[in-house]
Amino acid sequence: MLLAVFSDIHGNRQAFEACLKAAQARGAERIVLLGDLVGYGADPEWVVDMAMELVGRGAVAVRGNHDQAVNSSAETMNAEAQIAIEWTRGRLDTAQRRFLAELPMLVEDGDRLFVHSEASHPQRWHYVRSTVDAARSLISTPAHVTFCGHIHRPALYSMSVTAKMTSLVPKTDVSVPLLRGRQWLAVLGAVGQPRDGDPSAAFVLFDTVSCQITYCRAPYDIASAANRIRENGLPHWLADRLSQGR
């Protein structure tokens, strides 16, 4: 089965639509959503409704810190993110908020694990910035491949049976075989707010038979997404950064 894995959509309808279309064109058979459906972007209602529809059709979805913040004042964020979350709370109805609240922190699917931040303490929202961070996640699960997001920059880590770590920055559209005998941590870039210098929306395709992973990019209408942010009175930096990929 060919999985299409998305993370950090952040209320960006234009980016999510582009990724869904690109994944469908490439033959994706099942959708996985790694959290942060909302926050920053100006179309949280549409994104949550689409996620609800996809889950109803068999997609997997887990909870991100922005999703949790919609229903919990205990989640603290920087000022601009907090403004966006408070605005988002006023846009979502009861059913949409309940959907976010009931999302699991992680999902185990055969020899794969899906989580927003990392596997050792999903509820603490740690970032995977280094091989040390990746190792902490990998040793906490027997999964062959763990998929996570949260940091908005793509990376791929592996750990050997002797706990030797390797890492690489994956190249777009270059498939990488995730060899057996090693554990892997695939860190996705963001759909809705990339921070790796490339403003194109990011997602991953994973073939469950060949165990090959491909990091993909999808150009989208950044100007429209940015204008939606400005029109709704959200901080302009949240719009400006979209074209910068940071």
UniProtKB/TrEMBL annotation:
InterPro entries xref list: Ap4A_hydrolase, Calcineurin-like_PHP_lpxH, Metallo-depent_PP-like, Pesterase_MJ0912
Domain Calcineurin-like phosphoesterase, first and last residues per copy: 1-208
GO cellular component entries: cytoplasm
Molecular function terms, GO-annotated: phosphatase activity
PANTHER family according to UniProt: BLL5683 PROTEIN, METALLOPHOSPHOESTERASE
Family: Belongs to the metallophosphoesterase superfamily. YfcE family.
Full protein name: Metallophosphoesterase
